[in-house]
Amino acid sequence: MVMPPRPTFLTTRLTPLFSSLFSHSQYPYFSFNSNTPSFFLRNATRTLTTITSSSSSSSSRRAFSRYRKSQSHRLSTLAEPSAVKLSAKARRRIARGSPEAILKHKLDECSKTGDLVEALRLYDDARNDGVLMNLDHYNKLLYLCAVSDLGLKKGMDIFQQMLIDRVLPNEATFTNAARLAAAKNDPDMAFELLKRMKDFAILPKLRSYGPALYGFCKEGDADKAYEVDADMIRSGIAAEESELCALLEVSVSSNREDKVYEMLQRLRTTVRQVSESTFEVIESWFSKEFAAKIGEKNWDVNRIRKGIERGGGGWHGQGWLGSGEWKVAKTNVNQDGQCLSCGEKLVSIDIDPRETEKFADSLSILACKKDAKLGFIHFKKWLKQHGPFDAVVDGANMGLADGQHFSFARLRFAVEELRQMSPTKRLPLIILHVNRVTGGPALNPNNRRLIESWKKNGILYATPQGSNDDWYWLYAAVRCKCLLLTNDEMRDHLFQLLGSSFFPRWKEKHQVRVSTSTGKPVLVLPPCYSIVIQESENGNWHVPSVTGDDLDIPRKWLCASRSRKNSLHNLWKSTSATDDT
C-alpha cells in the first residue's frame, strides 16, 4: 500500500476557499492531496506537496520534467504547419489575428488601465468560445485580480482553472498568487507559495517576497518577518528601502532594539539617504521612551576606535552607545559638515582604491559590450597616453546648459573655472561627440579656433559615430580618480546597468555641478563630508533625507543625540588628562 505524502504546513494552517477540485488520476501533476486545504484550491497539488514532504523528491522532479516535455510536445503539435507551406511573414500575420493573440492584446490594454471588469468579461468569453489560454493570459488576469478587492475570489477560480488547463506556472504566477493570499490577510500562505516556487526550480525575485514580508510586518509578527528576510538573504536578493523600512517599522513597534540597529546599518549601506516615510520611522524610534533605556553607558574606547577605523569612518557597528533620552531634531548641515543642532562635524568616508580600480574595469567591460567596442578601446589607449587629468568635463551637458542651444562660450567658462581650481593649473579633459566638433556651432570661426586649441593641448576627445559619450567621460573620471563636471544626475538606464553600491559613493565625492541660481554660473564642488547615515563616536546619529535636483534647497537631516555626560568625548578627555599627569 502506497502511503500518501505526510501532511505539511498547508494541512494545518490554510483555510480552503474552493469547494471542489479534480482527482489525482485525471490531473496527475497538478492534482491535490485530499487531506490538504488551500487558499486557492481545496486540495494542494500533489506535485507541490510531494516535492517538499516526500523523501522521493528527485523522482517527483523527474516526473515534473517529463510533464514539461509533454507540454512542449502538445504545444508544438498544435502549432504544426498545414500541408500548404507558408512564409514566416504569413505565419506571423495569421498568428496576430488568432483568437489567442487578440485576447492577449486586449488583456494587455486592461492591464495598462487597471480595468478588471473588462478583463473578467474577456476571460469568460474566452472560456465560452474555447480559446486556448496560455501562461501570459493567466498571469495578466491574476495580476489584475491581485490588486483589486473585486478580483480576490475570482482570482482563486482563475488560478484553479489554470492548473486544470495544465499551464505551467512561472515566477509571476506564484508572485500574483502570493499577492492574492496577502490580500486575504494570509501572509503564511504567501510565504508557503514562495517556498513552493523554489521547489519548481523557479528563482524568486525581490517582488516575490513582498506579499509575505509586508503581510507579516502589517500584522506586527516580527519573528516571521525576520524569517522572510533571512530567506531573502539566503537567496542572494538584496532588500531595498521599502523592505528595510517595513522591517525597521515592525522592529520599532515590537521594541527589538538589536534589529532596529541592524536595519539602520543596512539602510546606511544600501540606501544612504532615506525617503520621507523612512525618515519618520527612524524619528519615531529615537522619540520612544523605550529607546532612552537602551545603550551602553561605559564602553571600550579602543573597541569603538577600531570599529571606526575598520569601517573607513562614519560608523563603528558596535551597538547603541550612551544612555538617557534622545534629543531629536530636524536640522541642516553647513558646508563644512557641521550639524546645526548638536554641533558635531560629519566625516568624509574613505573609498578603497581597490574598489575604484575594480569599478573602472567593470565600466570598461560594460562599455565594450554596449557601445562601439573598437571606438572605446581606442579611447582607453588615448587616455593612457594623454592622462591622467585633474578633471573631466561632460561637454554636451555643459554646452547645452539651457537644454536647447549648444554654447561653446558656456563650455569654455566651465573649462577655465576648473583650470583655476586645479592644483597643477592643468586644463581638464573635454568629452564631446564627433558631431559637436564638426558641425553646427562648431563651424563658427571663433569656435573652430577654440576647438583646435583644445585639440593641440591634448584635452579634447571626440567620441565616434554610434557611441554614447556618457561611457567615455565616466570611465575617464573614474580611471583618473579625478573630478567630473556634469549636471547629469546619472539615473537613466545606462547608469542602472552599473548595479553597484560603489557608484553613488564615487559620484558623491567626485561630481562637480554648475548652479545658476544667482544668475551667474557657479561651480558647486562635492561636499567635504559624506551624505550618508552616520553613527558618530559619541553614539549620536545623523540621517540625511533624499532631495531633488535643486542645489539651492538645503537637505533635511535628522539629528539624534544624547547628553555628553557619559560620552566617548568625555572619556577621551579624562584619559588624556590622566596621561598628562
Automatic annotation (TrEMBL):
Its main location: mitochondrion. Its EC number is 3.1.26.5. The keyword Heme does not apply. Residues 91-292 form the PROP1-like PPR domain. It catalyses: Endonucleolytic cleavage of RNA, removing 5'-extranucleotides from tRNA precursor. Keywords: Hydrolase, Magnesium, Metal-binding, Mitochondrion, Nuclease, Repeat, Transit peptide, tRNA processing, Zinc. Pfam families: PPR_long, PRORP. Signal peptide: none annotated. Residues 333-559 form the PRORP domain. It is an enzyme of class 3 (hydrolase). InterPro entries: PPR_rpt, PROP1-like_PPR_dom, PRORP_C, TPR-like_helical_dom_sf. GO terms for molecular function: ribonuclease P activity. PPR repeats lie at residues 205-239. Coiled coil: none annotated. Its cofactor is Mg(2+). It is found in: Mitochondrion. Belongs to the PPR family. P subfamily. This is ribonuclease P. It comes from Stylosanthes scabra.
